[in-house]
Amino acid sequence: SKASLLAIFSVPKEPGPQLGIMETANQTVSESQGAGQTLAPLCTACCCGLLNRTLAVMFMVSLAFAIVVGNVVTLTVFMQTRHSRTPQGYLKVSLAFADMMVGVLVVPFSVYTEIFLMVTSTPPLWYQGISTASLEGGSGPWQPCMLIGPVFAGCTFVSISTIFLMTVERSVAILRPLHKDTLVTRHRTLFLIVLSWAGSFLLAMAPLMLSNSFTLEYNECSRMCNYAPLLIGHQLPPDANILLLFPAFDFSLLGGTLAVNILSFTSIRRYSRKRKLLSEGSLGTDAGVGGCPHRPSFSDIKAAKTIGILTFAFTASFSPIAVFVLGNVVGYTWCNFSFFAFWILTSNSCCNVIIYSVRDHRFRKGLTLLFQRDKAQPHPEKS
């Protein structure tokens, strides 16, 4: 999971404007000494130079604009069209809202931090993760990553759980079409959505609630707020395995989503094959299709395929993070790769609206009606 990045604290020995961007060394906090030990900086000139930061900011701004605009349009279409007020529509609204929060809070904070570093060439007080005052027992500056980090992790967990719920909802429509309206109701769907959001953000806060060995800081490699362990003498804390909750949750839901998709697509394939044989006259007229006289509708089948594409897109964007976490386990840092891994996953927040636009005819119809509504209202002429 993206929250499993084991970052290193950066603590300035002497705070002051004389510390430039590339001159600030990462240091490890030691509880026994109460001071940092200078280590080699993780961020090199090739990934933290002025040109690289400028290109990164341009990419972040474009991504934030695409995420916010795309998901605002998605939410507007689903909220103002009656045919979208279904359990599946509510799940799509939940997914779009989680994606929009990434574009409204997470990405703009990274943009602000990178611009601050380029303009002032001096890291902000909270950038180092922990201040000298807090090391000496005082009250350090408030760390914005304590808000941004859980939002990023929580929204990712919401996306995974929502895609899983969408897959289950479509599988019921495919495998049990007679029981779809009975099993999948609006009230149950709304309850599961609330449960998904509450559970996802509780899980995102688990390392901070269950242990005192973790904090959140802005990482100069990924250019995002990541969970970071408090290193004791260059050693990870004994309860560092708490972070394994994140990949365990991610892979469990992704595996369950894949299994449900396989069941649905197997049923669709069997139904399509029997429908083809029936059209050719190879089967009797009373043989049924797909083993059930009440076959799934074409819209249910297409919606299941669309959700399958959503699952594939999320899995593809999540895979680099999985590789990165595996590299951390065996001791690799991969500073440059961490930027691509984290931001590929972030880019997934603007992919869903693209998939809807291509695959969902109801969404395209609602989008057309939305933009034609203003044109259809004539303005009164003044006499």
TrEMBL record:
The chain crosses the membrane at residues 59-78, 90-112, 147-168, 189-210, 242-266, 307-331, 337-358. Belongs to the G-protein coupled receptor 1 family. This is G-protein coupled receptors family 1 profile domain-containing protein. Its main location: membrane. GO terms for molecular function: G protein-coupled adenosine receptor activity. GO terms for cellular component: dendrite; plasma membrane; synapse. Keywords: Cell membrane, G-protein coupled receptor, Glycoprotein, Membrane, Receptor, Transducer, Transmembrane, Transmembrane helix. CDD domains: 7tm_classA_rhodopsin-like. It is found in: Cell membrane. It comes from Cyprinus carpio carpio. Residues 70-356 form the G-protein coupled receptors family 1 profile domain. It comes from the Eukaryota. SUPFAM superfamilies: Family A G protein-coupled receptor-like. It is a multi-pass membrane protein. PROSITE patterns: G_PROTEIN_RECEP_F1_1 (PS00237), G_PROTEIN_RECEP_F1_2 (PS50262). Pfam families: 7tm_1. The keyword Transferase does not apply.
